[in-house]
Amino acid sequence: MSLIIASNQPNENDTGGRDSSIFKPYSFRNDMSSTITLPKNSQIALQSAKINIDGSIILGEGNKFFYVYFGQGIRPPTTSFNLLDNMEESTGYPIKVFFNTDTKGKIASSPTEFAVKIQEALNLYIGHPQLTNRVVVQQEFDGTGSFTGYNFTFGSAITAQNSGAAAYQPDSFIPPTDTATAAYWRRQRYGPIGADNSPGQPQKDPANALTPPAWTYAAVPLGGTFEITLLRQRTQFVTFNVPPLVNKLGVCTYDILNAIGRNAAETGKLVVGLSKSSTEVRRKSVINPSNYYSVASSNSVSWIPAHFNYCCWVDNQTVAAPVAGGYRVDGQLNLSQSVVDSVDQGPVQVRETYRYKPRFMTFEYWGLAATQSDFNAPVDIYSDLGPQHRVPTADNTKIAFIEFRVNAEVIDVYIKSAGLAGDGSNGVYYKLYSHDDREKASDQLKPVSQDAWSMYPIMGLNNGGLIGGELTKSIDIINWTGANSNYATVMTGAGGVGDNDNGRRNGDIGWVPGIDRTTGAADFLTVVGGGWLFPKEPGGYMSWDQRCEAEGQAWRINDLTQSPFMDRGSLIYTDLTAPRLGINTVKYGTVSGAVPALGYDLQKPVLILQDSTRYSPTEGAGFQQVFGFSGNPIVDTFTLDAGAVNFTQISTQIPQYISTKSIFVRVNNLTQNSTNMRAGQISKIVGHLPRFVQDRVNAAGPLYLEPTNLIYLDLNNSEELKINSLDISLCYVDEKLADSLIGTTIVVFHVREKP
Q1: pLDDT at 546
Q2: Which of 1, 2, 107, 295 is deepest in the core (most CB within 10 A)?
Q3: Is the bond preceding 77 in cis, omega lying within 30 degrees of 0?
């Protein structure tokens, strides 16, 4: 029997450097001046090892991603936040957060660098207009300066875009006329976006298209005008690549005065509303999400093929009686939404494909309680609003404006009269629809769910069938309170480094050395139907639903929209027996308080760090120890700060960088064999070095490792074996070199004759 000692260098105290020579700490050779003879039928075992690990944070198979959730909490336990019985009642969905690692699984060299990586990942994937670029992750230290964990902060303040505006008040940001350069948006023009008239063709840049669009858009200080001037049998739609509507009391207002006339002969068909964005043009050049088909509903309107989360529309066609679906035409103001309805099966030819997907549905606002609507009859755009009011008013003027208001999960719709001045300056606001959770769920518009967090303005005009009057019709967008303050700003000049709005470094957020991002050509094939920044570049904003589509995971959107809370045909809406009695027991989350302390009352962030049955699907999550929440797979204890705008949570334990990337020792030039089933090959591995040892959970720095039981491998030598060198390497389970090792490596082998 004999011991064989091998090392990559003579200085055992060297624990910091990497040798670039052949004597690397993870791959080296030791030569002897003379040979040694091993007896026949010898065996070898790993006796011990001393290694140095550089402290890098290496993600193995068990901790490559985690999930983040923003919404109402799932019980148990029941708290003021955890009020839902299951995920099917939630308007949110767990968001999978990935990290980019090198080929060895390394993500960071230190906790400081790791904090930056966590922050970048959360800001990239969160996909919420109030939270994007507001997530901050910082290190926490005790009184002695020792690292104790991480502080996770989700900021949700609303702030002004312009420095001269009042703090915490979102500006009205009128979508600008399309420009040839992008002073704000890197490689992405911002302004109007629409599909051209050729089916299957990509949308065109209105300024430079070979085939000009059939509409125009021009922005002026008081609004932006969308206009058609010629007879158009196909509805013309326009949306905008602008920041999405702010989630806290965001407002979108349309002026429809120049789209309507005194009667049907002078009025064009019009539709205005809010829609989430998509990643491509679908079906007859209309910008639609992948899970939406306009004619899948019995309530569908043929001239509105575009997707709207919420919309108001008017048809000038003269019809004696209400058409199928319950809505009217000939000047009636209709309110519709895109919602799943398992009762309405739609046309036979698309029934199986779109049965449980959102479709165009009308909503009867005139049959609601007085707290929800000011009207007990449908609004006629040709008639004065006063007589149509539940209680006749003195303002006997026609409708002029349509306004959508977002309050977290609540959407309200208001209209405003033209007033005696005729331009709305002294008009009166009326409730077309206002949410009241005391009323039954079937009488509510759907909540603003996660797939609608990022909504954009969209307008449509159609003057086909107009038999008299002026063909020119237009709609003005006069108010858009976008989440302007959350975007990452651009530094001018060629090359350079991007930064976000408050000066925090956020890594590479879109700049490429040598390319001037302020003058780069626009790519309208990448962000269709709205967007924020150039999403396929680092730092570019992509909403949750956009990312699901882009990554081939649209089924996650279907999971959310098919849940009973979102399904107006489900029992939660139609059950008239106790205990529900037709009342939706799930409340919509809102914001409350006064600025700047304008906070969410029911919605909070949640970190899901291990596969959870409460928050599902969250398969494969594995970050409890790494984030410092050992034994706490669901972190739902975020608290609001004194300003009521920042959700904060600190690690409950010191993060433990326990990696599943164990290290193995190989002797490459001897005749032993082992089997690596994970790598699917015969190996030269002789022993295993677990990354964690006793109470040294972080397993960084100098580590002395000694197996409890020696495992001997046959050298399969039927005769004596003479050797004068050993080729040694240390690897991971995939047989790739363990290049996280630094300094000096010492390994000791025990060789014996087989008993």
Answers
A1: 83
A2: 107
A3: yes
Q: Which amino acid is at 748?
A: V
Pairing state between β 701-705 and 646-650: unpaired
Q: What's the rounded Cα separation, in Å, for the pair 522 and 187?
A: 5
Specify whether the CB–CB gap between 715 and 671 falls below 8 A.
yes
Separation CA 399–CA 383 (nearest Å): 8
Query: How far apart (Å, rounded) are the C-alpha atoms in residues 189 and 240?
Result: 10
Contact assessment for residue 327 and residue 342, using Cβ atoms and an 8 Å cutoff = no
Contact 150, 627 (CB under 8 A): yes
Alpha carbons 386 and 394: distance in angstroms, whole number: 6
Give the model's pLDDT for residue 491.
29
Residue 257 sits at φ, ψ, to 5 deg, of -55, -40
Condensed to tens digits (0 to 9), the pLDDT of residues 315-368 reads: 887 665 555 555 667 889 999 999 887 777 667 666 667 777 888 888 999 889
What is the pLDDT confidence band of residue 499, given thresholds at 50, 70 and 90?
A: very low
Is the Cα dihedral 322, 325, 329, 335 positive or negative?
A: positive
Contacts of 497 (CB under 8 A, 6+ apart): 491, 508, 511
**Do you find a cis peptide bond into 564, omega within 30 degrees of 0?**
no
pTM value? 0.78
What token pair was written down for 499?
């930064």
User: Looking at the chain, which residues constitute the CATH 2.60.120.1100 domain(s)?
Assistant: 2-55+658-753
pLDDT digits (tens, 9 = 90+) for 98-117: 887 665 567 777 788 889 88
Q: Judge if the upstream peptide bond of residue 243 is cis by omega within 30 degrees of 0.
A: no
User: Is there a contact between 341 and 567 (Cβ–Cβ < 8 Å)?
Assistant: yes
Query: Exposed, middle or buried: residue 624 (CB in 10 Å: 0-12, 13-18, 19+)?
Result: buried
Q: In the CATH scheme, what architecture does the domain 2-55+658-753 have?
A: Sandwich (2.60)
530 Cβ contact partners less than 8 Å away, ≥ 6 residues apart: 193, 239, 240, 241, 242, 244, 275, 276, 277, 454, 456
**Cis peptide, bond prior to residue 596, ω within 30 of zero:** yes
Contact predicate 340/567, CB 8 Å: yes
In single-letter form, the type of residue at position 261 comes to: G
What pLDDT digit, counting tens, does each position of 275-329 carry?
988 766 655 557 788 788 777 777 788 888 889 999 999 988 766 555 555 566 7
Reduce the secondary structure of 469-529 to three states and give it as a string. CCCCEEEEEEEECECHHHCCECCCCECCCCECCCCCCCCCCCCCCCCECCCCCCCCCCCEC
Tokens representing residue 90 in the block: 């939630």
Start-to-end CA span in the chain (Å): 11
Q: How distant, in Å, are the alpha carbons of 291, 340, 557, 568 from that of 563?
A: 15, 9, 10, 10
Q: Whole-number mean pLDDT of the chain?
A: 77
